[in-house]
Amino acid sequence: MQPEELKDVGAILETDLPGRAMRKAVREAVLRHKLLGQPIAVGRDGKVVWIPAEEIEIPPPEDDPPA
Question: How does DSSP classify residue 7?
Answer without folding.
Answer: G
